[in-house]
Amino acid sequence: MPGKVLRSVTTTMEVPFFDVDAMHIVWHGHYVKYLEVARCELLDSFDYNYLQMQQSGYIWPVVDMRLKYVAPAKFFRKIEIHAELVEIINRMKIEYRIIDAQTKELLTKAHTVQVAVSIESEQMQFESPQVVLDKLGISK
Fold first, then answer.
1. Beta-carbon neighbour count of residue 58 at 10 Å?
2. Dihedral sign (CA 15, 19, 25, 31)
3. Nearest CA among 95, 99, 70, 107 for reference residue 12
C-alpha cells in the first residue's frame, strides 16, 4: 500500500542540552533517537509496540534507515516529529518529518523500514503477520 497513510502521529519535544554540540546544533546521530520516540508513539496508537510484537512471536528489526538533513535543529527549540505508517503488507515502512514547532521549517526528512522476524525460527517473514494487519483493520 505505498503512498497511502495508514496511521500517523505527531509528537513534540524540546531539544535538550545534552543532544547539542558546541554550536548548540543537534548532533546528527541524535535524530535516530527522535525517530524512535515518534515510532514508539505510532506503534502504541495501534497497540503493537515492542512488547506486543514479542508477545505475538515476532521481532521487527530496522533493516533500512534514511535521513536527509535539511536544516539544523537547535538547543532549547521545540521540534515536532511527524511519523506516518505508509506500508505494512510486506514490511513496515514509516516516513518522518521533523519540523521546528514555532517556524514550521522542515528540518529533517527520513524513513525507516522494518521486517518481521519469527522469534521461534529466526527467519525473516516475506509478508507481515496477520496479527499486525488485524490491529490495523487490514485484510489481505
1. 20
2. negative
3. 99
From the centroid of its chain, how far is CA 137?
20
Whole-model pTM: value is 0.94
Q: How confident is the model at residue 3 (pLDDT cuts 50, 70, 90)?
A: low
- pLDDT tens-place string over residues 52-99: 999 999 999 999 999 999 999 999 999 999 999 999 999 999 999 999
Indicate the Cα dihedral angle 137, 94, 58, 124, nearest 10°: 110
pLDDT in tens, 16-30: 999 999 999 999 999
- Cell 495501534 maps to which residue? 46
* 94 burial type by CB count under 10 A (0-12 exposed, 13-18 middle, 19+ buried): buried
Which phi-psi region, left, alpha or beta, contains residue 92 (left: φ > 0; alpha: ψ -120 to 50)?
beta
**Cα 112 → chain centroid:** 6
What value, to the nearest 5°, has the Cα angle with vertex 77 and ends 8 and 5?
10
The single residue listed with the C-alpha cell 508513539 is: 41
